[in-house]
Specification:
With 364 residues, the protein is α/β, with parallel strands linked by helices. It has helices at residues 25-29, 44-60, 79-91, 106-118, 132-138, 176-193, 195-209, 213-233, 249-258, 267-284, 290-302, 318-327, 355-363, and strands spanning 2-8, 11-17, 37-43, 64-70, 99-104, 124-129, 143-148, 151-158, 163-166, 335-343, 346-354. The chain has 13 helices and eleven strands. Strands 1-2-9-6-5-3-4 form a seven-stranded mixed sheet, sandwiched between helices. The chain has a two-stranded antiparallel sheet with strand order 7-8. Helix 7 (195-209) packs antiparallel against helix 8 and helix 10 packs antiparallel against helix 11 (290-302). Residues 185, 249, 267, 271 line the site of zinc ion (ZN). One of its GO terms (molecular function) is metal ion binding.
Length: 364
């Protein structure tokens, strides 16, 4: 088992990564749980795939799990289900020192973490992330949120979990497309700060995508280490370090917006394309050797991720995409702070990127 200590704001917790953790969830959580009754929130897909396993694991350890099963999908990160979860936790008589288990992907983690942050002014919660994206990204760092009519993730709180159990076996029931989307965020950690890890991905990515649990464990542990290191130094996004985690996300969000945040492009798929574009744009500005930039799309193609805009079948004209970027909150007088690459393994925030230049690049 890999154990990654996370220490953010003096509230240390562990991210444990190992095959079989879900089937051992009762023993893993036992030292933290004060009562027999344990609230578990999940979504319908995860319940179908892993509900019995986790329920049996908790019962074996002497607990009495109480289940709240929500609809699967991004729409569940809403006021409606936030209220539903909070009211349910109150009815379950959850106290501040109790722990709520969040079993699922980023949707469940974000929603339950937010509910925990406000229940009785903050109760504890444990993340059992079941998507690769949740294991390497959303379950670490303490950001929680819901979506509202005004946009995604605009209402939320910083609230750290008490424990994270990341089980690579959970990914065996996850659709391959979702694994690929999470994998893009894995590659991101290599690109932004760890060249040997990107080389590791080049060597092992295809076998990892095909299901090798040992490789998945290593990739998750290394990603969590990278994220934890960055977040520990910039918990509230004040010194710019945390911004590095947005590599590929400016282009990615524009593409997501262009596809109407629909199933045509998952977030991670947008990020993969976004990192390819960020690398090529860096090469165009003479920052990065072209051959280095091209390693990125070659690798994504090798693991079955779309790496070229043309594969999206979108009208991706530069003006249109830049218009989406203008909607992003970070816009500043015709230029955009933009994450570029100096080399594979070294991202930096360029503050002087002209939107006209980006639009021209996209149209080339
Ligand atoms: P998700 O939670 O919607 O899961 C994707 C799909 O996979 C869902 O249909 C889900 O039911 C299903 N699923 C989950 N685990 C499964 C399993 N083991 N087997 C079978 N099916 C399974 O999406 P996600 O990609 O995990 O997370 C996306 C969310 O995470 C977004 O709302 C995003 O804003 C958020 N996010 C948050 C942070 C953060 O720092 N808090 C970071 C990145 C993303
Ligand atoms: Zn992302």
């Amino acid at each position: 088992m890999a154990v990654v200590p996370v220490d953010i704001a003096g509230r240390p917790y562990e991210v444990r990564v190992a095959p079989g953790l879900l089937a051992d969830a009762g023993n893993q959580c036992a030292p933290l749980l004060r009562k027999a009754r344990v609230p578990v929130v999940t979504d319908a897909n995860v319940e179908a795939a892993w509900g019995k396993t986790v329920d049996a694991a908790l019962r074996r350890a002497g607990f009495e799990p109480r289940w709240k099963v929500l609809p699967a999908g991004e729409a569940t990160k809403s006021w409606r289900y936030l209220a539903e979860v909070v009211d349910w936790l109150l009815a379950e008589e959850v106290e501040r020192k109790d722990h709520v288990l969040a079993l699922g992907g980023g949707v469940i983690g974000d929603l339950v973490g937010f509910a925990a942050s406000m229940l009785k002014r903050g109760c504890r919660f444990i993340q059992l992330p079941t998507t690769l994206l949740a294991q390497v990204d959303s379950s670490v760092g303490g950001k929680t949120a819901i979506n509202t009519a005004a946009g995604k993730n605009l209402v939320g709180a910083f609230h750290q979990p008490a424990l994270v159990l990341a089980d690579p076996l959970a990914l065996e029931t996850l659709p391959r497309r979702e694994v690929g989307a999470g994998y893009a965020e894995v590659v991101k950690y290599g690109l932004l700060g760890d060249a040997p890890f990107f080389a590791w991905c080049e060597a092992h990515g295809p076998a990892l995508m095909d299901g090798d649990p040992a490789l998945r464990e290593q990739a998750v542990a290394r990603s969590v280490q990278a994220k934890a290191r960055i977040v520990a130094q910039d918990e509230f996004e004040t010194n710019g370090l945390r911004a590095l985690l947005n590599l590929g996300h400016t282009f990615g969000h524009a593409l997501e917006a262009e596809t109407g945040f629909s199933n045509r492009l998952l977030h991670g798929e947008g990020v993969a394309l976004g990192m390819v574009l960020a690398a090529r744009y860096s090469a165009r500005r003479g920052l990065l050797a072209e051959a280095e930039a091209e390693r990125i799309p070659v690798h994504f193609a090798a693991v079955g991720l779309r790496a070229e805009l043309a594969e999206l079948g979108l009208d991706t004209d530069g003006r249109g995409l830049v218009a989406h970027m203008l909607h992003d909150k970070k816009m500043d007088a015709g230029t955009l702070p933009f994450l570029l690459l100096r080399s594979i393994g070294e991202a930096f925030l360029a503050r002087d990127v002209a939107l006209d230049d980006v639009a021209a690049f996209l149209d080339e």
